[in-house]
Design a protein that fits this description.
6 helices; two-stranded parallel sheet; about 120 residues; 2 strands; single chain; mainly alpha
């Protein structure tokens, strides 16, 4: 699947479910894989990456909440999130989901996880 197809499938899922895609797909994401990829792609700086690592002090078992590192908009500025907004905006969500779609499109494993998620939900 292309990143455009993945992005559209995310939007379609949200419209059908009436829920935020990230809230449901985050258990399929590995925070370490995503954040290392985001750093390598230049979506976050080394300073942001180090802030993220410092937040978990090497124990990433609690890093499962994608809204803390993909798209944060809960009034709490999370400096290491790929897209961090004080309030939710459509533009912010589009940017965050576009980046997530790119990540998924570049991984055979994540494409499989994404397809399984869509089939199950």
């Amino acid at each position: 699947m292309t990143k455009e197809e993945i992005y559209q499938a995310m939007v379609d899922w949200q419209m059908d479910a009436g829920e935020d895609f990230l809230d449901y797909f985050d258990s399929s994401l590995n925070a370490i894989s995503f954040m290392c990829w985001a750093r390598g792609k230049g979506y976050i700086t080394i300073e942001q990456f180090n802030l993220w690592e410092g937040e978990y002090k090497g124990d990433f078992s609690e890093a499962a909440w994608a809204t803390r590192y993909v798209h944060s908009f809960d009034g709490e500025q999370i400096e290491y999130a790929v897209v961090s907004e004080e309030d939710w905006t459509e533009e912010g969500q589009e940017k965050a989901y576009g980046i997530l779609a790119e990540f998924i499109s570049e991984s055979v494993s994540y494409q499989r996880k994404f397809k399984e998620f869509l089939e199950e939900n």
